[in-house]
Write a structure and sequence with these properties.
The complex is a heterodimer.
Chain A lengths: L2 H25 L7 H8 L1 H15 L13 H14 L3 H19 L1
Chain B lengths: L7 H13 L4 H17 L4 H11 L2 H12 L4 H11 L1 H14 L4 H10 L2 H12 L7 H26 L11 H14 L3 H16 L7 H22 L1
Helix pairs in contact in B: 1-9, 2-3, 2-4, 2-9, 2-10, 3-9, 4-5, 5-12, 6-8, 8-9, 11-12
The chains are: A mainly alpha, B mainly alpha.
Chain lengths: ~110, ~240
């Protein structure tokens, strides 16, 4: 990609992320928006986060892989289990990474 | 922000914020490193990778942009993808705005720039605590600036050291896990479950779409599913 186009993408990404963050803090009053919009807004985190996480667990190399050859979905289940029990991001991330490393070592 | 004039409560809130975010940094540092590696791997110079991080300050937006720059996708498609993964900021912004309404524009611009998933999650929790809320924005600032500093340092390290970390470490899995730990507490009601399951399934089914449009399609499908279940439940 052309160098100046890359810079355009970089600055554009900054504008997009800043404006979405700024939307209600700087520009608009959320209470002035229709009820339906606010209902939809509440489902943005579970939907967007799941759309990022699920492929990362089930389809790390493209194609859906629920076999033992893909340890990531099992490590993901471990991390989910820990996250549901103890509300601690650190414990959950460490458990997920440890599970992945153990499964990878066993497969070798 | 002269230290000698800083209210003791403001100082306490700020230091609490710096401390509260500490456990999260264990995920932030490898994630930032991966984001720096990804930018350079996509063909950006280290300087461009670092600039992207300073401008966007959003791990997932940086990763998505890097992926799309790597496949030379059109600028508008790249920015649309960055917008979709940033949709969750609309929700965070709406939830935080009542707490920040009394602040000056300068403060609100600063806190807007620093707001990420983790900053929002911890900041809102703090605003829910009893007691005087007058200096709670210092807590938000403490979380945000600490996370920012560690994030940028990790991105710089990743962009410069590049791919020297062995692939067997699977550091990229930290990215998935970082969002997983946000996803789990975000799923509370049946409608949330519907939104997450439909979005996850749609992301897999639409994986063949070009330019990571699967993320856009899946997110919208999940939001629609959540709204549908919520409405049926109400009636």
């Amino acid at each position: 990609m052309n160098d100046s186009l890359v810079w355009l993408v970089i600055v554009g990404s900054g504008v997009v992320t800043f404006l979405t963050r700024a939307s209600f803090i700087l520009f608009a009053d959320p209470h002035k928006f229709p009820h339906g919009f606010r209902v939809a807004l509440a489902f943005v985190p579970p939907a967007v986060l799941a759309a990022i996480v699920i492929p990362g667990l089930v389809s790390p190399a493209g194609g859906i892989d629920f076999s033992l050859a893909n340890p990531r979905w099992i490590a993901g289940l471990v991390a989910i289990g820990v996250a549901m029990r103890v509300r601690n991001a650190l414990a959950s991330i460490l458990a997920g990474m440890a599970a992945l490393w153990i499964l990878q070592a066993l497969a070798r | 922000m002269n230290r000698s004039r800083l209210h003791p409560d403001a100082r306490r809130e700020f230091l609490d914020g710096c401390r509260d975010i500490a456990p999260v940094l264990v995920g932030t540092v490898p994630f930032g490193f991966v984001a720096g590696v990804a930018a350079v791997g996509a063909g950006m110079s280290p300087l461009q990778g670092i600039a992207l991080s300073l401008f966007a300050f959003s791990g997932i937006a940086q990763l998505v942009v890097a992926q799309l720059v790597a496949v030379q996708s059109p600028i508008l498609v790249t920015l649309l993808a960055a917008f979709v993964v940033s949709l969750r900021f609309l929700m965070y912004s709406a939830a935080l705005s009542p707490h920040l309404a009394h602040l000056t524009v300068r403060w609100r611009v600063l806190l807007t720039y620093l707001m990420t998933d983790q900053v929002f999650g911890m900041g809102v929790k703090r605003y829910g605590d009893p007691g005087d809320r007058g200096h709670r924005h210092w807590h938000l600032f403490g979380i945000g600036i600490t996370l920012w500093a560690f994030w940028q340092a990790s991105v710089v390290a990743g962009a410069i050291l590049g791919a020297q970390v062995p692939a067997a470490w699977s550091l990229d899995f930290v990215v998935t896990l970082s969002f997983l730990v946000l996803l789990v507490p975000a799923v509370r009601t049946r409608a949330d479950i519907a939104a997450a399951v439909v979005a996850g399934a749609a992301a897999l089914l639409a994986a063949g779409l070009p330019y990571r449009l699967s993320l856009v399609v899946a997110s919208l499908a999940g939001i629609a599913a959540g709204v549908a279940v919520e409405w049926r439940h109400r009636r």
